[in-house]
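We examine the record.
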Amino acid sequence: MATLSAGVALMAGVVPFRGWLEQRDRNAALRVEVEAVEADNRAYEDRMDALDTDEEIERLAREEYGLVRPDEEAYAIQPAPASDAVVPGIWPFAD
């Protein structure tokens, strides 16, 4: 009878302990996730602060939209077209 009551007491202690371990692991995972979200938020705040400056607005206007100042000229240089022509391996094309 003593072993039975000791077994019941042991089982009563194991189940809550297992739940506590699971909660501890879940809390650790959630802390990591919260830290990642907070890092993203800081990056977004830095980006918003940068967008409040005239220099950043001008940089974006030039790079992404190709805008220039009124006294400047813009030139667009097109890349060379890719050659899809197949050259036969016979004379006069062969080496």
